[in-house]
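Thread title: Can someone regenerate the structure for this chain?

I was given the following input by a collaborator and told the matching structure tokens would be attached. They weren't. Posting the sequence so someone can regenerate them.
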Amino acid sequence: MEQPKVSVVLTSYNKPIYLDRAIQSVLSQTYANVELIIADDHSAIDDVYKVIGKYLHFKNVIYFNSYVLDEDRLKTARYATQINRAVREFSSGKYICYLADDDYFYPEMIERMVSFAERTGHQVCFCAQHIVDTDGNIDGGGIEGRGIRFFNEVLVRGADRLDHNQVMTTREAFDKVNGWNDDQWCWSGADAVFYDRLENAGYRFYPIDYTQPLQAKMYRLNSVQWNIMNGLPVLEKSENVN
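Best answer:
Regenerated them for you:
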């Protein structure tokens, strides 16, 4: 029996020093039936395209560039816009995972997530997540002062509790809620708004039966998350719009 396909949407913008690791983390999964969709938002750094170019010969890698104009960049929540296009125009998987270009999956993540979803029939599930700094240290500086984020309970509300990198949904659930809201007002928390859509449609967020972290979330100086945690303006640098 063929494994169900998983589509991983990797949103990319101006982070070549982290992008290679993110891509490798998907291609080195223990689960075989994975397609990787790299959705670059018209990066202005040439090294981004050098990184992506190394993987374009892989049969399971799909790439597109938004070619968004600078004057249009702040008109929508860009990573939500890119996720919607990636899923609707390029994906073919039963399941969808979401990944930012400065974060990464551990090798068994998809295998364990799919195994749980197939066994239980749950359409939205999540795994434990490491919070790391730019040097890879799990130093307890993350959400609620912990280096690991996980809720060993079924969540009615995923907003403000789960990061989009640690969640897997079915394509069916994505379509039922009409994907992500990419309106300008929600760009700094589009994942939370997507979770609200799922909640309002009756979906619940199920923790997989494996409590060790399977994904790593990086908090970078002047990133959206860093600024929010430190009470700074969200838009500090141009790279933060994704």
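The first helix runs from residue 16 to 27.
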